[in-house]
């Protein structure tokens, strides 16, 4: 039986994003909307997308293979493989089974885990499964891998600019540079029809825009306040946001995240004693008697606390938005793209010993806030230094993508939509534009079996 382990967390990470993007400025002109609607109103710059050459299986295969190669992973040393996704292309067969093709080649088939699905929360559920396994009596001493990936597409209209695509692969085990706090996860789970995908013949969701924002902010209120309560049980000096070095959020679009940090400050304001409130939040006394549940669309509260929290946002949250701003919403991998973004924004010396809170949200709805501590080992060649170096190499690929005009992007989306449920099918998207090492769909046969190859 394996020994009880400590400092369980993320040992290595790999990020995937598409090799093509559409510029949001160009998209504003193409859609004939007001200047700044997508770039300022949503806070987005570029949106990555996939042609019909890529699907959820190929995206996750790409991220997994890169993680294995970059970290020289022995597949016999992996005992669990978890996938989080809401990009469902089969009602029975999991994405994880396709990923096993890489393991089976090495004769490594004793690998637990399958897919977790609940909108954008699936990646977090998969991650918790892996962490819990390593910390449990079921653990056999091997490491786990978690893949969170999605292709987010919308029909023509106001929601389309909030799309995106991506995947994050994470190696999980003990003695990690990114360590998960024990006993302080705070979850909020309930039922809502804010965003859902009941039409299995379509990639597109049903979205109640106003309701999903309310659900997101309500979940944030509940998770944050319970998280603070649990943290104070561990550390009586815990002071909410001021005690955290970073606050990361699931990112449907960047402007919502800025509003969310303001919302966290509003919660700290409501929770503060009268004396602390006067000292910490000067000039905001007109909001003393406001109630959380009545302020989700209160513009005065939003504006006042966004102004108040501007410097806190710049320090604790904005560095996490680089990927989201330039790739778009990656659904289950969005929060973890945010973690990648924050890590590459600093040097290892600036990160050691820091504590981050992470808020994960999935419509329908499921949400959790939890925290990660960064190790204090900053020696040359340390796990933290190697992790950040590999992520910097990956993120640098953002500048090597191909910009596609909105008319071409629209045509490629039309091809995806038209052929979403077609079999047999041979994709028409270009292989030449894909990054080396990318898996792509070769064909779907008459039995709807999918075949893939990897671009060299």
Descriptive notes:
The longest helix has 26 residues, at 209-234. The two termini are 41 Å apart. 35% of the residues lie in helices and 20% in strands. By secondary structure, it is of the alpha+beta class. The mean pLDDT is 96.
| Total E-strand runs | 17
Assembly status: single chain
Q: Main β-sheet, in a few words? A: 10 strands, mixed
- Termini separation comes to 41 Å
Q: How many H/I helices? A: 14
Q: Whole-number average pLDDT?
A: 96
- Cα gyration radius (Å): 22 Å
Q: Which blocks of ≥5 consecutive residues have pLDDT under 50?
A: none
In percent, how helical is the residue content? 25-40%
Assign the structural class, choosing from mainly alpha, mainly beta, alpha/beta, alpha+beta, or little secondary structure.
Answer: alpha+beta
How big a fraction of the residues is strand? 15-25%
What coarse outline follows from CA principal-axis ratios?
globular
Keywords: Lipid biosynthesis, Lipid metabolism, Steroid biosynthesis, Steroid metabolism, Sterol biosynthesis, Sterol metabolism, Transferase
Function: This enzyme condenses acetyl-CoA with acetoacetyl-CoA to form HMG-CoA, which is the substrate for HMG-CoA reductase. Catalyzes the condensation of acetyl-CoA with acetoacetyl-CoA to form HMG-CoA.
Family: Belongs to the thiolase-like superfamily. HMG-CoA synthase family.
GO biological process, one term: acetyl-CoA metabolic process
């Amino acid at each position: 039986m394996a020994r009880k382990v400590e400092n369980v967390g993320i040992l290595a990470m790999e990020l995937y994003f598409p090799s093509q993007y559409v510029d949001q400025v160009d998209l504003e002109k193409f859609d004939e909307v007001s200047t700044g609607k997508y770039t300022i109103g949503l806070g987005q710059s570029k949106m990555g997308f996939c042609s019909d050459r890529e699907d959820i299986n190929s995206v996750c295969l790409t991220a997994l293979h890169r993680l294995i190669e970059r970290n020289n992973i022995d597949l016999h040393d992996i005992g669990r493989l978890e996938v989080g996704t809401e990009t469902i292309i089969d009602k029975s067969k999991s994405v994880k089974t396709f990923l096993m093709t890489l393991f089976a080649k090495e004769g490594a088939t004793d690998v637990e885990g399958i897919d977790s699905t609940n909108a954008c929360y699936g990646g977090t559920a998969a991650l918790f499964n892996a962490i819990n396994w390593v910390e449990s009596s079921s653990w056999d001493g091997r490491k786990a891998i978690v893949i969170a990936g999605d292709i987010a597409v919308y029909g023509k209209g106001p929601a389309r600019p909030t799309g995106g695509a991506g995947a994050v692969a994470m190696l999980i085990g003990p003695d990690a540079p990114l360590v998960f706090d024990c006993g302080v996860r705070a979850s909020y789970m309930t039922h809502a029809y804010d965003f859902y995908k009941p039409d299995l013949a379509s990639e597109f969701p049903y979205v109640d825009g106003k309701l999903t924002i309310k659900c997101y902010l309500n979940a944030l209120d509940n998770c944050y306040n319970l998280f603070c309560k649990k943290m104070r049980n561990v550390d009586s000096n815990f002071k909410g946001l001021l005690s955290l070095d970073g606050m990361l959020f699931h990112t449907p679009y960047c402007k919502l995240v800025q509003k969310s940090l303001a919302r966290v400050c509003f919660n700290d304001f409501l929770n503060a004693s009268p004396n602390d409130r006067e000292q910490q939040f000067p000039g905001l006394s007109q909001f003393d008697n406001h109630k959380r549940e009545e302020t989700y669309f209160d513009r005065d509260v939003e504006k006042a606390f966004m102004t108040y929290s501007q410097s806190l946002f710049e320090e604790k949250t904005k560095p996490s938005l680089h990927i989201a701003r330039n790739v778009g919403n990656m659904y289950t991998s969005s929060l973890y793209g945010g973690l990648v973004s924050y890590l590459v924004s600093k040097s290892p010396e600036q990160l050691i010993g820091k504590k981050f809170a992470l808020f994960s949200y999935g419509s329908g709805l499921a949400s959790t806030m939890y925290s990660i501590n960064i190790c204090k080992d900053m020696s040359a060649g340390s796990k933290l230094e190697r992790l950040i170096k590999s992520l910097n190499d990956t993120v640098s690929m953002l500048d090597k993508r191909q910009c596609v005009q909105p008319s071409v992007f629209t045509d490629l989306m039309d091809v995806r939509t038209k052929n979403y449920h077609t079999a047999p099918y041979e994709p028409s998207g270009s292989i030449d534009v894909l990054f080396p090492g990318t898996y792509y769909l070769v064909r779907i046969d008459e039995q709807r079996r999918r075949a893939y190859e990897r671009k060299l």
